[in-house]
């Protein structure tokens, strides 16, 4: 393959994905297009057979693409492993897929490269994706058909994220030069939403009307395996940190308030009444709004 071809870095982070990692890697290697692929695999010290499976794939599947496999001796955690892997990427564009998700369209990368090459104002591109509920083996489309009826792509804004639009990190691609790795790494509770907001505050985001991948929902997922209380606490810390650094952004303020409410609701459902009350009054005195206070007491009455 010619050295003059554009290079795409595909970043895969994995931890204990022995059931899924083969499909994730092999489907990436099936990509077709006028580019060369650099595949970066960062194994966060898996304790199952993930490492053995990856090495077996690399040994027995000769490939035209450059594959670089790294296995940490100690677990870094998802966010640190994500940034560590990104810094290893050398391509003009970076795509991402976690080890328990997988791609379904062999032209995924080519479609996204073509879009970003033609649309310079956009720095981040997503596609649509399907959701696989592993427990019941149910595969579902997303619920956004109405937005794509007559469009090849739609532009995403901050209000969409505030309303809870589900974006799949396994579908994203962005220009490496458009992302400040060091600036975002400073966030203690960095999640994919930090990435989305960063690009929205510094550029434009689009979603292509094309199903290219599957997001797998299973009990072994780092996030899906957590309780409702744990999930809301993570969300609160995430949006509190984002809002504290971007207080001029109204949608971030609204999201932060919502997660204060969600967290207070989760606390009371877990029987942590005193802490729940302190959180809801904190929300009241920060937002100066009675709507969450009234809804909180309404929900509390229903529980009791």
Helix-strand blueprint:
Layout: E1 7-14, H1 21-29, E2 36-43, H2 50-60, E3 66-71, H3 78-86, E4 93-96, E5 102-103, H4 108-118, E6 122-133, E7 138-140, E8 153-156, H5 158-162, E9 173-175, H6 181-185, H7 192-202, E10 204-217, H8 228-245, H9 250-269, H10 273-287, H11 291-303
Parallel strand pairs: 1-2, 1-4, 2-3, 6-10
Antiparallel strand pairs: 4-9, 5-10, 6-7, 6-9, 8-10
List its traits.
304 residues, alpha/beta, Spore Coat Polysaccharide Biosynthesis Protein SpsA, Chain A, 11 helices, 10 strands
Report on this model:
With 304 residues, the chain is α/β, with parallel strands linked by helices. Helix 1 (21-29) packs parallel to helix 2 and helix 9 runs antiparallel to helix 10 (273-287). Strands 1, 2, 3, 4, 5, 6, 7, 8, 9 and 10 form a 10-stranded mixed beta sheet that branches. It is globular and about 60 Å long. It has 2 domains: 7-217, Spore Coat Polysaccharide Biosynthesis Protein SpsA, Chain A, CATH 3.90.550.10; 228-303, no CATH class. The chain is built from 11 helices and 10 strands. The chain has helices spanning 21-29, 50-60, 78-86, 108-118, 158-162, 181-185, 192-202, 228-245, 250-269, 273-287, 291-303, and strands at residues 7-14, 36-43, 66-71, 93-96, 102-103, 122-133, 138-140, 153-156, 173-175, 204-217. Helix content is 42%, strand content 21%.
């Amino acid at each position: 393959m010619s050295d003059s071809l554009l290079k795409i870095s595909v970043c895969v982070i994995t931890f204990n994905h022995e059931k899924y990692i083969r499909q994730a890697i092999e489907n990436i290697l099936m990509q077709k297009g006028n580019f060369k692929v650099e595949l970066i695999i960062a194994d966060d010290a898996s304790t199952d057979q993930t490492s053995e499976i990856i090495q077996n794939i690399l040994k027995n599947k000769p490939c035209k693409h450059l594959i670089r496999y790294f296995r940490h001796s100690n677990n870094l955690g998802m966010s640190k492993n994500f940034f560590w892997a990104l810094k290893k990427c050398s391509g003009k564009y970076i795509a991402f897929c976690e080890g328990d998700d997988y791609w379904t369209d062999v032209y995924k990368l080519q479609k996204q490269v073509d879009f970003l090459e033609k649309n310079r104002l956009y720095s981040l591109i997503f596609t649509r994706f399907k959701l696989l509920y592993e427990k019941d083996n149910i595969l579902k489309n997303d619920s956004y058909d109405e937005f794509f009826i007559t469009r090849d792509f739609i532009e995403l804004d901050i209000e969409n994220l505030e309303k809870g639009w589900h974006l799949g990190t396994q579908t994203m691609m962005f220009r490496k030069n458009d992302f400040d790795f060091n600036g975002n790494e400073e966030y203690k509770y960095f999640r994919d939403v930090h990435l989305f907001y960063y690009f929205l505050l510094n550029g434009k985001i689009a979603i292509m009307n094309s199903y290219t991948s599957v997001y797998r929902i299973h009990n072994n997922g780092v996030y899906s395996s957590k309780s409702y209380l744990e999930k809301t606490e993570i969300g609160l810390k995430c949006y509190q940190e984002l809002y504290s650094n971007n207080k001029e952004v109204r949608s971030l303020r609204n999201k932060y308030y919502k997660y204060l409410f969600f967290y207070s609701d989760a606390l009371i459902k877990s029987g942590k009444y005193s802490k729940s009350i302190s959180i809801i009054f904190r929300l009241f005195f920060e937002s100066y709004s009675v709507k969450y206070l009234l809804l909180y007491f309404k929900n509390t009455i229903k529980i009791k």
